[in-house]
Specification:
With 263 residues, this protein is an alpha/beta fold. It has helices at residues 32-43, 65-76, 97-110, 124-133, 153-165, 180-195, 240-249; strands at 9-11, 14-16, 22-27, 49-53, 80-83, 115-119, 139-145, 170-175, 202-206, 224-228, 238-239. It has one domain: Aldolase class I (TIM Barrel, Alpha-Beta Barrel), CATH 3.20.20.
């Protein structure tokens, strides 16, 4: 039986951090037409949520965000995760930090996304702007990425603790394994955090083929997994139906009742 988060977050009609591991597919589009076409196609696959990677959209400005979000929700029928990723952490293009954060603010202020992703590397003063702008029902992911290595277990625990202490509603950590033991380090840290101090939902993954097993890490404290729909947004993402089959086989979806945390 998997351990649930003590402070789950509502994502549409589902609970992030509840009995089931949720699935999320990315939308990577450069223009409005492609964005809405992808959203409709992916929405028909019925993922639990959809991530709009706004850093892929050409010429996006804060004033354009509300209209695009309304159209995206209508086209997809899915709860949304809004991400405007820093280039230094895998973002598609370079952006000034003020403009990038202004786009995040605009998204949070609409109340339309279920989740807005704010990297821990974002300056504290800028991150506070996004938190202050959000309307009721919008939860904040604080995320941390390592695209070259996997830190030691203690470093991962420190990162998760820092996210919770920073007021995150959800913590996200993504690492790059170099050897199989790195994947065990990530999974062990996630389980230890869930059993001890981490009360909020967690999203964790080891990227690439070596880390693929971590995307089924729901028994180790991870509450959401990203799957490829039209296009993958990170190395190691699997096709959505394959991901669902694996989650079902592991008893991580289709849970009929909540499992109490034995803490």
């Amino acid at each position: 039986m998997r351990l649930q988060a003590r402070r789950p977050v509502k994502v549409g009609e589902r609970l992030l951090g509840g009995p089931d591991v949720l699935t999320c597919v990315p939308v990577l589009a450069a223009d409005r037409r492609t964005l809405l076409e992808q959203a409709a196609r992916l929405g028909a696959l019925r993922p639990d949520c959809m991530e709009w990677r706004a850093d892929f959209f050409d010429g996006l400005e804060p004033d354009n965000v509300p209209g695009l979000l309304h159209a995206l929700v209508a086209a997809s029928g899915c709860p949304l995760v809004f991400t405007n990723r820093r280039q230094e952490e895998g973002g598609h293009r370079a952006q000034s930090e003020d403009r990038r954060v202004a786009i995040l603010e605009a998204a949070a202020s609409t109340g339309l996304p279920a989740l807005v992703d704010v990297e821990m590397a974002t300056a504290a003063s800028l991150a506070r702007r996004v938190v202050a702008a959000r309307r009721a029902g919008v939860a904040i992911i604080r995320s941390w990425h390592d695209f070259s290595a996997t830190p030691p277990r203690a470093g991962l625990l420190d990162a998760l603790r820092a996210m919770q202490e920073a007021g995150a509603d959800v913590a996200k950590v993504a690492v790059t394994p170099q050897v199989p033991e790195d994947v065990l380090t990530l999974l062990g840290a996630g389980l230890e955090a869930r059993r001890t101090f981490l009360e909020i939902p967690c999203i964790s993954m080891a990227m690439g083929a070596l880390g693929a097993v971590s995307r089924f890490g729901g028994h180790f404290g991870s509450d959401l997994t990203f799957a490829a729909g039209v296009q993958a947004s990170a190395p190691g993402q699997m096709e959505l139906e394959l991901m669902r089959d694996g989650l079902r086989a592991m008893g991580l979806v289709g849970v009929e009742r909540a499992v109490a945390d034995p803490r």
